[in-house]
Amino acid sequence: MMAFAQNDSDSTKKSDNLQLFGLYNQTGGDIRYPQLGALGNRVDGEFSSVQIGGVFNQVGKDVDGFQLAGFVNQNGGAFYGAQFSGLYNQVADSVNGFQATGLVNNVGGRLDGFQGAGLANLALDSARGVQASGIFNFNKGLNGAQMAGVFNQSEAVRGIQMAGVFNHATDLDGAQISGVCNLSRGTVDGFQLAGVLNIAKKLKGVQLGVINVVDTVESGAPIGIVNIVRRGGLHSFGLSANEVTQINAHFRLGTKAFFTSVLAGTGYANDRMVTTAGLGLGHIFTLSERSGLMLEGSCSYLFDDGWPFGQENGTTNLLNKLALSYNYNLGGNTTLYLGPVVNVHVWDATNEGYTPVAPYTFFDETSSQGLRVQGWVGGTAGIMF
After folding, report:
1. What pTM value is reported for the model?
2. Contacts by 166-173 with C-beta closer than 8 Å and gap 24+?
3. pLDDT at 5
């Protein structure tokens, strides 16, 4: 049987009537018993019970209970409990509880609890708990976790942000993990992991990405292929010589704790010209204000008699180095360095007639896969600016 229930009395009056199986249930005051409407339910005052509407539920003031709607839940006050809808949940004030919807959860105040949405979660004040969405999460301060398919936005974060594309926070005490980019406009006290780019103003932790950009490193290190530290970082161009390539150029970026280098060299080895190009990484141990030890490993391709052996198809020809150099700063950005280098040359032994570049060897073996490996100890000397 279809029913229509309405309380037209003063809005401060509480209704204890059970409103069930109506097409549309409406109460002008407060109510503390269930409403079940095929179309929807409306309460102009406060609601403390269960609302189930085929299309919508609407409450003018606070809700303490449970709402389930086919499309929309809309509340004009605070919400305590659980909300479920097919499309949209809106709470004008704060939420303490659970929200789940197919598209958007929108909270005008603070969130304490959980938001789950297919499209987006919005908390226009701070959030303590979890926001999980298919596209986008937003709040003005997080103590907990944000997980989004595309983008997370917050101010001060104490917890974790995880996104498929991009995370943004002012200060971070915790972790940011994204497929493309993480951005913190304040201090990162924790960990940033990105598929491409991490950006922070001040770092007290670790950045791990292809490109890391930070204004100041207080502790920890950016770790990636390109590490840019604007203040107090390592940005050095250097020239060096060794027994295989007598002219080498290096560009080092990062910090003393961790730096990466791009290097290239050329010279004469066993009466023919060779050229190398590769990448390296290293660490500088501080001994005194002017001196230190630089540990640097590198891997370079060795171009020799063509590309790389005068054959149409490239073959393996790698020159690997591990150097330990003593550094002495002459003043400003000028530093001299000198030290031993362990060299390991790996090339395709099927290339008959190839002459190795090693001046001598302490190790010389050929693998069953046809790779020949030679090792020797050499040296390097150079200058950094």
Report:
1. 0.83
2. 169/142, 172/200
3. 44
